[in-house]
Amino acid sequence: MAGGRCGPLLTALLTAWALAAASEADPKQAAMPEEQSLVLPMTASNWTLVMEGEWMLKFYAPWCPSCQQTDSEWETFAKNGEILHISVGKVDVIQEPGLSGRFFVTTLPAFFHAKDGIFRRYRGPGIYEDLQNYILEKKWQAVEPLTGWKSPASLTMSGMAGLFSISGKIWHLHNYFTVTLGIPAWCSYVFFVIATLIFGLLMGLILVVISECFYVPFPRHLSEHSEQSRRSEGAHGAEQLQDAEEEKDDSNEEENKDSLVDDEEEKDDFGDEDEAEEEEEDDSPAVGLDEERSDSQDQRPLRDAQGEGEPDETEEDVPEQPRHSAGTAAAEDALRQRKSQHADKGP
Questions:
Q1: Which helix H or strand E contains 89, and what residues bound it?
Q2: Kind and range of the H or E element at 186?
Q3: Which residues are marked as active site?
Q4: Helices 185-214 and 155-175, interaxial angle, to 10°?
Q5: What digits encode the pLDDT tens for the residues 85-122?
Q6: Which of 79, 78, 109, 93 is nearest to 47 (CA)?
């Protein structure tokens, strides 16, 4: 009897406890399975996946309000990635500063389109409709690609990625000193300055050691021979300069001598010409007189013949005598003028 009564009572108590627990439980606080995100986080180790196929990348920071506003649109765009035949990824610039340097991201959020390793910057709004039209209508073909040294896969941007990664590590270390350990900020700055100086000295020492290891000294006899050759070349060059100067001096002296000789010859020529002119002037009056005398002698028999044949024309021959006398007077005046001119030139 007692055992039969305890069984139903225990069952009732358990049922009442279960109903009380169910009534107290809040259905909103029940754990719901989270949807798996289709956006692939990109890191320095897997970023080379974007070199194949078609991708859309988003660079963001957790503290960026604009980046947070586009998160839902980006998730919706990733869900339709299979329909659009495109992969969707995201990069946290705080956790991956090297990738932000590789793509040279200066503003947030930043979007990039990749097609078979060719990258283009998407500058439109990060809204689902615009992103979908950008892929379906192939608007990315009108955008200039990042080629040459601007390409994220180039050697230049790889070096930029290294610099950004180093700066990110320094920033994390500074936060560790100031936030975790509670060290003042100026102490952290002093530490980094000293570390930079020590690192520079070590790098200089390493370069000196490398140069000493790879430097091959010349043998002694070769160095002496090279010095002798240099000296001989210098002496030969000095001799050539001296010879050139002497040749110049000799040529100048010869030119001066030639010019003096030419001047003297010109003077002699001028003197001979003057003497010849004087002699001609001296001879010209006598020649003129002889010519006049011969003309007068030739004209006398003509006059006699004319006088015999034509006695009436004697009167016309009379005025010829004063003509001859006028010519002799003009010749004498010309001789006097020339003599006076030579006399003036003589002193």
A1: strand 87-92
A2: helix 185-214
A3: 64, 67
A4: 140
A5: 899 999 999 999 999 999 999 888 999 999 988 999 99
A6: 93
